[in-house]
């Protein structure tokens, strides 16, 4: 029996989680999968608590997600959203589908009853056979705010802060980000079970999610990065960058904003090598980035290059299997798959 803990953001994290679960169900059915999910994207909207990344992972594992969009529910309708827009309530550019709204209403109801987000999440998740435990990184509210130049003012240095979802969805990350700030982060604490899931894991995996606003937010919650450094489990990450471009989403814009090059090599260096007080032991890069292997190996990372695109659940399961093999090789329990 192995305990696998995955740190994940929304859309990319959900796709990887699906492949990882498929691999575990076939190869190690007794394995316990815990997914620590980013909550920096969470927001209050129309009086409801919306948790985009938790919901993307939950819907994907439940098999009820919208495969085309990558977020929200399949077979969705938007009648309530249209009513809210008619009343001028909410964000007209941020669609809350009717089925999705059911989740937000249920979650908000549980929160209003006094449950912390971690318990509310467990209650929502218990509806489905997810094959994984979902943990929000923290029960505290740590909204990611993006500092952008103020539009239309006289002062060229004036800035304003947008909630991440406004910057991401409304402006498609098009307004230059000067900084990302996780409000309330310094005084937040990891949700119950998060530190244990990392410290007591046999393997910790870092999904190919946005290194800045998804994985970065999880790791920024006091105590979590230390737990990753401390765990006896090997820590293996997957590059969200393939051939110099973000695998999905607009992670490149976030990396550029914090001065990190959009490359598989630079993101590994950004996370850092655990042996040098960083976070990773191993790193999977795409075959397009095979040039990075020698350099990262010389730095001390266990690296393999293999196709990293999630073209199907089967292919994602094979990627997950290779990530676990890399981790097991470090634990001396298995073999490293050949570098392609
Ligand atoms: O591009 C969009 N993404 C939407 N997303 C996805 C989300 O904004 C981002 O892709 C993630 O937060 C980034 O991980 C939603 C997620 C939810 O949980 C609920 C509602 C939405 C609505 C939108 C939307 O209208 N447009």
From TrEMBL:
Record EC number: 2.7.8.28
InterPro entries cross-referenced by the UniProt entry: CofD, CofD-like_dom_sf, FbiA/CofD
Keyword line: Magnesium, Transferase
Top-rank taxon, per record: Bacteria
Signal sequence extent: none
One Pfam family recorded for the sequence: CofD
Any one GO MF annotation of this record: LPPG:FO 2-phospho-L-lactate transferase activity
PANTHER family for this protein: 2-PHOSPHO-L-LACTATE TRANSFERASE (PTHR43007:SF1)
The protein's name in its UniProt record: 2-phospho-L-lactate transferase
Originating organism: Agromyces seonyuensis
């Amino acid at each position: 029996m192995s305990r696998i803990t995955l740190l994940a953001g929304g859309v990319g994290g959900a796709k990887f989680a699906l492949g990882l679960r498929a691999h575990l169900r076939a190869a190690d059915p007794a394995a316990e999968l815990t997914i620590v999910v980013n909550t920096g994207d969470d927001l209050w909207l129309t009086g409801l608590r919306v948790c985009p990344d938790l919901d993307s992972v939950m819907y994907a594992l439940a098999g009820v997600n919208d495969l085309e969009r990558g977020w929200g529910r399949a077979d969705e309708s938007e009648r309530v959203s249209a009513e809210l827009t008619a009343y001028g309530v909410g964000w007209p550019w941020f669609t809350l589908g009717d089925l999705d709204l059911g989740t937000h209403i249920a979650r908000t109801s549980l929160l209003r009853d006094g449950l912390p987000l971690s318990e509310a999440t467990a209650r929502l998740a218990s509806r489905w056979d997810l094959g994984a435990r979902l943990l929000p990184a923290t029960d505290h509210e740590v909204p990611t705010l993006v500092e952008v130049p103020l539009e239309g003012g006289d002062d060229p240095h004036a800035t304003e802060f947008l909630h991440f979802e406004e910057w991401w969805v409304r402006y498609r990350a098009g307004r230059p980000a000067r900084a990302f700030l996780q409000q309330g982060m310094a005084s937040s604490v990891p949700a119950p079970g998060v530190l244990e899931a990392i410290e007591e894991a046999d393997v910790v995996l870092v999904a190919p999610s946005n290194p800045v606003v998804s994985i970065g937010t999880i790791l920024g919650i006091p105590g979590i990065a230390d737990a990753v450094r401390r765990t006896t489990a090997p820590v293996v990450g997957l590059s969200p960058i393939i051939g110099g471009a973000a695998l999905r989403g607009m992670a490149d814009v976030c990396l550029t904003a914090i001065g990190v090059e959009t490359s598989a090599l630079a993101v590994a260096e950004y996370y850092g090598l655990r042996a040098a007080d960083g976070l990773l032991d191993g790193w999977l890069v795409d075959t397009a980035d095979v040039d990075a292997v020698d350099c990262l190996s010389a730095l001390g990372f266990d690296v393999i290059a293999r196709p990293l695109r999630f073209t199907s659940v089967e292919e994602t399961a094979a990627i997950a299997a290779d990530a676990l093999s890399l981790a097991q090789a470090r634990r001396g329990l298995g073999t490293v798959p050949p570098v392609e």
